[in-house]
Amino acid sequence: MKTFKLGGVHPPENKFSEKQPVEILPVPESVSIPLAQHLGVPANPVVKKGDKVKTGQLIAKGEAFISANIHSSVTGTVTKIDDVIDTSGYRKKAIIIKTEEDEWDGSIDTSDNLIKECNLSREDIVKKINEMGIVGMGGAAFPSHVKLMVPKGKKAEYFLINGVECEPYLTADHRLMLEKGEELMVGITIQMKALGVDKAIIGIENNKPDAIEYIGKLAQEYKGISVEPLKIKYPQGAEKQLIKALINREVPSGKLPIEVGCVVHNVGTAFAVYEAVQKNKPLIERIITVTGSNIEKPCNLMVRIGSPVAALIEVAGGLPDNPGKVISGGPMMGKALNDLDVPVTKGTSGILVFSKKQSGRVPEITCIRCGKCVNTCPMALEPFFLALLVDKQRFEDCEENMIMDCMECGSCHFVCPSGRPLLDSIRVGKSNVGKMIRERSDK
Amino acid sequence: MNEIVLYSVLSIGGLGTLMAIVLYIVAQRFKVIEDPRIDTVEERLPGANCGGCGYAGCRNFAEEIVKAGSLDGFNCPPGGSETMKEIADALGLEAEEQEPMVAVVRCSGSLEAAPPKTRFEGLNTCAFAHSLYAGRSGCPYGCLGEGDCVVSCAFDAMYMDKDTGLPVIIEENCVACGACVKACPRDIIELRKKGKKSRRIFVSCINKEKGGVARKNCKVACIGCGKCVKECKFDAITLEDNLAYIDFNKCTLCRKCPPVCPTGAIHEVNLPPRKVKEKKEEDSKEA
After folding, report:
1. Could you tell me which chain A residue has the CA closest to the CA of B126?
2. pLDDT by residue (tens digit) across A304-336?
């Protein structure tokens, strides 16, 4: 069985909710839809206070190249466009809509019929994906149409689909593959057409044997799509690691996967593409895993974008006594929330509730030079050294030591026997080096 | 035996002389001519290499002064006017009179005034905390309390007050080198005019959020009400983005603005206690 070679860790899986079918979260009383849901330029609102909007209506336009359209996830009235706390506690612009009875925009096909045929041309598919505001559903929420536009002089050979879900606890992609397999396949064929490739590989870790079997069976009916079971290892869901595992190619430092002829999308994105192209449905809801070891009812929920996190936790049985931390995303890369009214965005893959005992860090002691972090780093960096350089503010040396290759998977911090906050230091370094590089390019 | 001694003395001595000659020639050939005035200036500088002047250490500062040939725009904050005057005398130049400055912490969000809502665990530096989240109280402008400024201070002029969770500046030690200003990721610390008898009035808040939002997180935040602006007769106070700022060059220390501030965000430092206020307190005591 395949996997990537370098580094990686095996955190306990704890996939409590993998047997829970996807439930639909009731539409909350009001939603706040952030205008900046990903890297790049925030979208510009096209509605104003007091406007009536229907579900699926365009409410903000992404005008820059790396920017995505935003659609209303509910029917109702825009109460205000104001600053709302985001996952890190800073206030960002958002459109707040008070909901009324759900009424979908007329152009959207809300039936469950599977439509296999797609007669659109390559350009039209990409245009449609852009219009419908589809972004990567893996977590970073990078606008999908940008990835599907192959730059001149480059050629895509493989289309890789990420069904790895290597983060512990999360089961959203797993459930999606089991419940929306057919739609997923059509979504993949559409994107293959858009990219002009004839080979697509779906990578699934072998802790999901039911998904491997089901998707494998479906794949036989579709030309060019194959399923590859992968050994369990974190962070296999990272783009570069997945490419290495599936087709054994290495993306050069600082380059994109297209450099080695690949485009990687998440299964969630493939499903969203299907809905956008075949059903005309913009990205207004997504599957989110709500879990944690003391959560009463771990579950997978279909949630409208902009719903408050508190509503999701409520459905899963409410906050347990003595909660320590609520995390948006996976336990390895997710972000701790400091407010439960934070809205769900296009990139939220899970909500995790940890007890005080689970969430506490071990006391930090001195580095014993065991080298575990070096062996573990999937990007072949030296985390202990980078952290040291950052502490000494030697950012030029950080850059020389490839700090920007770090994808912040957190493996180094996970294995460190001294409990050193290696990733914290590296993040500080990355932001400083990033600033340095921007200043240099401005000159 | 004697021969061995003789030969070794001769050969080593000869070699030494030869090398000395080579070294002498090389030294003459590649001589670096340095302006002796650089040393003169450097001798008079404090030698702390704090970087407060904006140059990479005292030597670099001396080089730049000599290169420029005038003292305009040069200032050594730790040395102050005295040092600059000494340098001016030594070089035969004119030194501008420099107003002494002092660092001021513009946040009063203590643990009591701005109660922490979250517990922070991780790398204990402000730089990281700033990139991670808005802060313990939820105020995205307030002090993060991890003490990057204290670490940066080379003059022992700062410490973290454990009770308030805020940094405190020891005025006697502060030389206004500006290291803490650079270290703070939120630009909370400002260099202000020290003033006569180090008396100062300043707005101890930099929150630009709307009043209600700012107040929710912190009891002593500037809410941008503008009362102080109306009170000031000298146009020293400006209100921008829901935040009042007192220009230290225009402020005459008339003490009209602090009492009108509804949140007490305007601080007076080293000013004698108010007579009126005392009376009031007495009244209340009697009552």
Report:
1. A428
2. 999 999 999 999 988 888 888 999 999 999 888
Q: How would residue B283 be classed by pLDDT, with cut points 50, 70 and 90? A: very low
Q: CB-based contacts of A5: which residues, under 8 Å, 6+ apart?
A: A244
Give the end of a domain, one of A64, A99, A134. A99
Give the number of A-B residue pairs with CB atoms closer than 8 Å. Answer: 49
Alpha helices in A55-206 (DSSP H): 122-131, 144-148, 172-179, 181-195
Looking at chain A, which residue has its C-alpha nearest residue B217?
A: A89
Question: What residues in B contact A85, CB-CB < 8 Å?
Answer: 134, 138
Query: What is the span of the domain harbouring residue A60?
Result: 23-99
Q: Give the per-residue pLDDT at A339.
A: 86
- Interface contact flag, B134 A89, Cβ < 8 Å: yes
Confidence at residue A152, expressed as pLDDT on a 0 to 100 scale: 86
Distance, CA of B227 to CA of B229 (rounded, Å): 5
| The two three-digit tokens of residue B247, written as one number | 């220009």
Per-residue exposure over B214-223, b if at least 16 CB sit within 10 Å of its own CB, e if not: bbebbbbbbb
Report d(CA A63, CA A46) in Å as an integer.
11
pLDDT digits (tens, 9 = 90+) for B134-189: 888 889 999 999 999 999 998 899 999 999 999 999 998 898 888 899 999 999 99
pLDDT value of residue B276: 59
What whole-number distance in Å separates Cα of residue B195 and Cα of residue B253? 10
| Whether pLDDT at B280 is above 70 | no
B101-273 belongs to CATH 3.10.20.740: no
CATH number of B36-91, picked from 3.40.1350.10, 3.20.20.140, 1.10.15.40, 1.20.1530.20 = 1.10.15.40
Residue B122 has pLDDT above 90, yes or no: no
**Interface ipTM:** 0.85
Residue to substitute from B132, B218, B242, interface A, most A β-carbons within 10 A: B132
Chain B interface test: which of A384, A389, A427, A432 (most B C-beta within 10 Å):
A427
Final residue in a domain of this structure, among A360, A390, A407:
A360
Contacts of A283 (CB under 8 A, 6+ apart): A71, A132, A133, A134, A135, A272, A275, A276, A305, A346
Q: What is the pLDDT of residue B281?
A: 47
Which of B123, B135, B209 has the CB atom closest to A425's CB atom?
A: B123
Structural domains counted in chain A: 3
Query: Using the 8-state DSSP alphabet, how is residue A353 labeled?
Result: E
Instruction: Give the pLDDT confidence score for residue B126 in this predicted structure.
Output: 92
Query: Which residues of chain B neighbour A428 with C-beta distances below 8 Å?
Result: 123, 125, 127-128, 131
Average pLDDT on B271-281 reads: 64
| Maximum average pLDDT range among A140-154, B222-236, B272-286 | B222-236
Choose, out of A85, A393, A424, A430, the residue to mutate when testing the contact with B (most B CBs < 10 Å): A424
Q: Residues in chain A with pLDDT < 70?
A: none
Pairing mode of beta strands A158-162, A91-99: unpaired
Which residue ranges make up each domain of chain B? Answer: 36-91, 101-273
pLDDT recorded at residue B279: 46
Q: CB–CB of B134 and A88 under 8 A?
A: yes
Q: State how far residue B273 is from chain A, nearest Cα, in angstroms.
A: 39
Give the contacts of A395 (CB within 8 A, at least 6 positions apart). Answer: A389, A429, A432, A433, A436
Cross-chain residue pair B213–A361, CB shorter than 8 Å: no
pLDDT band at B287 (very low <50, low <70, confident <90, very high): very low
Quote the CA–CA distance of A211 and A214 in Å, as a whole number.
5
